[in-house]
Amino acid sequence: MKNSSGERYFIPILAACDLIATLYLGSFAIYNLINQVTYSNYVLCKITSCFYGLATFVPTCVLLIIAIQRYFKICMNLNHSNTLLFKRVSLVLANLCSVLVAMPLPFVTKLIPVHSSRYRITGMRCGTSSKGNNLARNVYFIVVGLFVVVTVTTFIVLYARIAYSIFRHFKKRRHQNDKKGKEANIEEKNVENNKEKQEDFPDEFT
């Protein structure tokens, strides 16, 4: 892995994170659907909500690392983005950021009583409630919303710059190829003109 490029290093990690997230989030959703009003384990509700956040935020942060690494490599020509130290530090920071964002989830998630006289249903479900500590809940979801907005904006800005750099590179290369083609055509015409002049010389001057 030491000599591998950023793509070969990060893409398998992203694939593994996506696979884990797909399996966990899918299983979590199915379990919640089966136990919509029979969720009785308080600890399990807290733990699953925390891992739900991790499974969501870790792949997002890895994608952000890939975007930053591509920006450094393509737009800024910084070779340190391909070093193993940069990659490992980036992954550690991604995991730390994901943990920090997901850690408050167990504190805003709890077992919520469900009562429906119409359907004669009484039970418990795992989720966030508008009752209780509204300030902490609102602050957390505002922070998560800002995180999402900043992340999406960063993706747009970085990949716009990358696309512009690639477009400018190919435009410059095409211009150089056209210039070389014109120079080659001029040289070819000059050679043909010289040959024609030599053929037009009288025999006594040759």
What portion of residues belong to β-strands?
5-15%
CATH homologous superfamily placement: Rhodopsin 7-helix transmembrane proteins
Calculate Rg over CA atoms: 31 Å
List unreliable stretches of 5+ residues.
Answer: none
Q: What's the number of domains? A: 1
Whole-number average pLDDT?
Answer: 81
Enter the CATH topology name.
Rhopdopsin 7-helix transmembrane proteins
Number of strands: 2
What is the CATH architecture assignment?
Up-down Bundle
Q: Tell me the number of helical segments per DSSP (H or I, 4 or more residues long).
A: 5
**Helix vs. strand class:** mainly alpha
Question: Which percent range fits the helix content?
Answer: over 70%
**Looking at the structure, what is the overall shape?**
elongated
User: CA-to-CA gap between the ends?
Assistant: 69 Å
What is the top-level CATH class?
Answer: Mainly Alpha
H/E element sequence: HHHHEEH
Q: Biggest sheet, open or closed, and with what strands and sense? A: 2 strands, antiparallel
Strand order of the largest sheet: 1-2
Structural description of this entry:
The protein is mainly alpha-helical and about 210 residues long. The chain has a single domain, classed as Rhodopsin 7-helix transmembrane proteins (Rhopdopsin 7-helix transmembrane proteins), CATH 1.20.1070. It has five helices and two strands; from the N terminus they run ααααββα. The protein has helices at about 5-35, 40-75, 85-100, 105-110, 135-200, and strands at about 110-115, 120-130. A two-stranded antiparallel sheet has the order 1-2. A hairpin with a 4-residue loop joins strand 1 (about 110-115) and strand 2 (about 120-130). Helix 1 (about 5-35) packs antiparallel against helix 2, helix 2 (about 40-75) packs antiparallel against helix 3 and helix 2 packs parallel to helix 5 (about 135-200). The N and C termini lie far apart (about 70 Å). It is a multi-pass membrane protein.
